From TrEMBL:
Protein's recorded name: Heme ABC transporter ATP-binding protein
Superkingdom as given in the UniProt entry: Bacteria
UniProt domain ABC transporter: residue ranges: 3-245
TM region positions: none
Protein source organism: Niastella soli
Organism ancestry: Bacteria, Pseudomonadati, Bacteroidota, Chitinophagia, Chitinophagales
CDD domains the record matches: ABC_Iron-Siderophores_B12_Hemin
Amino acid sequence: MIVTAKNICCSIGKQSVLHNLSFECKPGEVTVVLGANGAGKSTLLRILSGEQAPSEGAVLLNDKNIQTIPLAQLACCRAVLSQQYLLNLPFSCEEIVMMGRYPHFNNHPTRNDHDIVQQCMQEMQVASFTGRLYQTLSGGEQQRVQMARVLAQLCDGNANGGTGKLLLLDEPTASLDCLHQQTCLQKAKELAQLGYTVVVILHDLNLAAQFADKVILLKSGQLVKQGSMEEVLQPGYIAEAYEMEVETWHHPDYPFPVLVPASHKMMSVLKTNNKNNIHEYDSRSFVKG
Ligand SMILES: Nc1ncnc2c1ncn2[C@@H]1O[C@H](COP(=O)(O)OP(=O)(O)OP(=O)(O)O)[C@@H](O)[C@H]1O
């Protein structure tokens, strides 16, 4: 599914939150939205999901204005992981994941729905929480259950094709440990490779470097830069968006750069090329093991 944002503007009261944003998110790609706190990332995601209408401009899904697509139809092809889920009712974990299947059945879930719930719980490593009350889980465990729910919403069982599906994730790794950050974004990448269109808000520049095909970098609701990961994750653009200096390090064994705050230099293991603020490791300086 091609997602086209056309001249998106959003005002809340007198505050202009998003200014004239235009971009395209394509199937097969993970698009990462970056920007400082308050830059407008979550507002943009709500507009891309159809939950909120822009003040001006439009979001098109395969050339169709998302605001004209019936909710029941939208729920079968796009899933959203929001930042926070406050829940006061005593649902079990599998009941939460089953909520992702609600758009797909009328009164009772089928065997296929139950199978998909189990499969998605296994993929997010939450199958062992079956029978547990959701509220009794830790923050990161709850986040993984919510991720299983959005996967279940878009899953179509054995076929598992991704054509025509849109996955929107707002800081999916915020509460996750480093292993589960990798599991979660690896899953997002796999789904993109199956043909899903995936949009992820992240704060960690290094996770963005590792998983993004495309990056949209915002500052105060305006586009700083959009393009491939290599084009956008440049010290100059990062400084503009975050008012923080970073350095970009490259290692010959890794296809993506490492971004570090400029104050934390490891001069002993670096060969410095200050011209572009880019550093290259001397790999012989590292001892494996
Ligand atoms: N309902 C609202 N009423 C007033 N201001 C709002 C409302 N929703 C968002 N804003 C403001 O709009 C701006 C963008 O908010 P948004 O949540 O999109 O930022 P964000 O980039 O997702 O931030 P963060 O990284 O902190 O999650 C912020 O300044 C926020 O205070």
